[in-house]
Amino acid sequence: MSMPSKEMTAEQVIEQIEDGMTVGIGGWGSRRKPMALVRAILRSNLKDLTLISYAGPDAGLLLDAGKVREIVYPFATLDSIPLEPLFSRARQDKTAKFREWDEGMFQTGLRAAASRVPFLPMRAGLGSAVMENDPTLKTVTSPYDDGETLLAVPALELDVALVHMNRADKYGNAQYLGPDPYFDDLFCMAAKKAFVSTEQIMDTAGMLLDAPIQSMLLNRTMVAGVVETPNGAHFTTCTPTYERDEKFQKAYATAAKTPEDWAAFQARFLSGSETDYQDAVQAFAQEAN
Amino acid sequence: MSDVTRAEYCAIAIADCFADDGEIMGSPMGLLPTLGARLAKSTSNPLLMITDGEARILQGAPPLGTSNDVVEGWMPFRLVLEAVVPFGKRHVMMGATQIDREGNQNISAIGPWAQPKRQLLGVRGAPGNTVNNKTSYWVPKHSSRVFVEQVDIVSGVGRNRAEAGRACADGMYPQMGDVRTRPIPDPDGTPFR
Fold first, then answer.
1. Which domain holds residue B57?
2. pLDDT score at B67
3. Does the beta-carbon distance from B122 to A74 stay under 8 Å?
4. Among candidates A91, A76, A67, which has minimal Cα distance to A27?
5. Which CATH number is A219's domain given?
6. Do residue B156 and residue B175 come from a single domain?
7. Is A184 among the domain residues?
């Protein structure tokens, strides 16, 4: 019996997502974000999503497009530009429900979901405004002699996880080649279904010719579908395949400051297909040089 | 007038904060803290462990703006958050948009939580840092808008809140809210405020 291919298009991934679902997005800030899949959500009719993200432009764009009802996040940043302008505007205009967690809490919530336990205890968050501003959070008392009070970080259960990898095979085994896996494997294991976009779908045997076995972050039991999206993390990093497109990111952040400039940016880059986007990005790069 | 610039005084003062840390991870946030931590590694505390700000542990202390160095280990974000911070073998120096006398710090947003006037970074790792590992703050802007009576959104937890938040008297909160305020000498000899 041969194994079935899980190769699909970004549009087929979107068909697997329903209004109101909880969607986790991998990467970190403006690093290795599945932007081609985010752009596919922007083009869809999806709405009322709960977004779980170490937030970067993924969160900014989805909030700005009115796709998000609730977001759990520890920060929102473009890394080389400290603040995510579209996220800031959404937060200041109160266009969604915001649950701001500590970075470690966020990981712990994903670990709880991946381990199928309702919560995991930790100290991070105690005493801070996180507990006051997210009233769903509760503490738990250690049943052992120490009797310590700890934060019971609730599981961040995901309906769908979206992550971007440097390489994958068509069965869902996927590989990162950069310095940090971020939390992409946890996102996939915390989700009912995980979808991987990748720079290149290749033969399984080819992946370990030039990289160590530890780079194989995702195995096929964790993955429901694979989409080949070259330059699909643009404009975030996909080290070492490409770094962040700083010129483009700066143009994005600058345009987001005024409604007029933002409308022009959207018309130029975000009004067509992924192919149109990549063509417009190429044209921009030639201009910028 | 001295040849030493104000920035150099600041870097030296920051380096002093890491001098007695021994063999732990130094996590400086921002330009001058990075310079200070690397200075400490080059002088007073060669055991200090630093990274390139991403996942590479650097054996040496390369000049600011560079990270070309022998890589002596791997420090992905997951390891920082699930073991290094919680175990406490780390000294972080963060910034603060607002900070109060108890060491409560705000980097989340300015204004009321429900609808802030200005969104900042979010709380990031500040809540976990402050109740787990040694924390210092580098706050160059000395104004009453920064040093406030009460911060708007407590991101880094100060002493009073950390103590109120713990259940048992001997709960483990190693070194929290280590607020270092010290006068920074002005190169011209006038007090710097």
1. 1-93
2. 81
3. yes
4. A76
5. 3.40.1080.10
6. yes
7. yes
Q: Give the pLDDT confidence of A21-78 residue by residue, as tens digits.
A: 999 999 999 999 999 999 999 999 999 999 999 999 999 999 999 999 999 999 999 9
CA distance B76 to B54: 7
**Pair (B129, B174) in one structural domain:** yes
Considering only residues 58 to 117 of chain B, which have any Cβ-Cβ distance to chain A shorter than 8 Å? 74, 76-78, 81-82, 85-86, 108-109, 113-117
Q: What is the pLDDT of residue B184?
A: 47
Look up the domain containing A66 and give its range. 10-102+156-204+213-276
Length reported for chain A = 289
pLDDT of residue B188: 44
Chain B residues whose CB is inside 8 A of the A147 CB are: 167-168
Q: Is residue A62 part of a domain?
A: yes
Residues of chain A with pLDDT under 70: 288-289
Domain boundary among B61, B93, B125: B93
* Residue B126 located in a structural domain: yes
Q: What digits encode the pLDDT tens for the residues B122-172?
A: 999 999 999 999 999 999 888 999 999 999 999 999 988 887 654 322 333
Tokens of A17: 């997502």
In a domain, A287, yes or no: no
Residues of B in contact with A75 (CB under 8 A): 121-124
Question: Under an 8 A CB cutoff, do A91 and B109 touch?
Answer: yes
Question: C-alpha distances in angstroms, B78 versus A34, B29, B34, B182?
Answer: 19, 18, 21, 34
CB B58 within 8 A of CB B78: no
**Which of A87, A127, A180 lies closest to B162 in CB terms?**
A127
**Residues B8 and B56 placed together within one structural domain of the fold:** yes
With CB atoms and an 8 Å threshold, state whether A181 touches B76. Answer: yes
Closest C-alpha to B54, from A42, A134, A243: A243
pLDDT at A288: 64
* Chain A: residue whose CA lies nearest to B71: A179
Count structural domains, chain B: 2
Q: Which of B93, B124, B148 is the last residue of a domain?
A: B93
Which two three-digit tokens encode residue A148? 């310590």
